[in-house]
Amino acid sequence: MYKQMTHTTPLRKFFRLGIWAMLIPLILFLSPVPVSATGTGETGIDAVFVIDTSNSMNQTDPGKTAAEVISMFIDMSEASRTRIGFVAYSDRIVQTQPLTSMAESRERELLKSKIQGLRYSGYSDLGLGLRKGEEMIARAKDSSRKPFLILLSDGGTDLRQNANGRSVAASNKDVESVIAKAKAAGYPIYTIGLNSDGSVQKEQLKKIAETTGGNLLRHPKHG
Q: pLDDT for 39-66, tens place per residue?
């Protein structure tokens, strides 16, 4: 089930082990309770990845750890009961995929290919990305499934002045709105701080995760 790790630096291996350590209990905890004969129970999980593809990620995630995390999650999940979607954002929505069943191998490989094909460029609007992810979960709401968001970012918002009529304040307001909606709906937001150069803005990522019942994983080099 688990693929052998490729040769890489000791630090990267350590971070990868940290990701495994987070994903394994996450998947076990979120595994659906089988539906009983009375029709009660859960039919699966809905995972929406919100991926920062702004230019700063060229420095903070040069090895494309974000794509690796998602591929690992796809391989480790129970495919027949898992739906996965994603939102890639910079200072605009770059690409999306709605929640899609992973039961068929071609869907799993197609999703991996889409994620691997993402390129890092532009500025960053964290609130916009999270808002789109929250909307994706809301549209596909199913009381028999466990939804959650996983945010992969170096943190924060960086906008050109008056970019698309947006401001950092407006983006931060969207972040707070998504936190409130996730809490109300009862699902967590997990955050992965991609910061190989140590520049991750951990406080906001930590707040997003802890306030909604998720947790934050950061690069081990920078605690």
A: 545 578 999 999 999 999 998 888 888 8
pLDDT digits (tens, 9 = 90+) for 158-178: 887 656 778 999 999 999 999
Find the angle CA(64)-CA(148)-CA(19) to the nearest 5 degrees. 40
Q: What is the Cβ-side half-sphere exposure of residue 193, based on CA atoms within 13 angstroms?
A: 25
Q: Among 183, 56, 68, 171, which Cα is nearest to 121's?
A: 56
Measured distance CA(46)–CA(144) in Å, rounded:
10
**Closest by alpha carbon to 49, among 156, 137, 146, 143?**
137
Predicted model pTM: 0.84
Provide the token pair at 80: 């027949």
**Core vs surface per residue 161-179: b (16+ CB within 10 A) or e:** eeeeebeeeebeebbeebb
Per DSSP, helices labelled H in 32-77 are: 57-60, 65-76
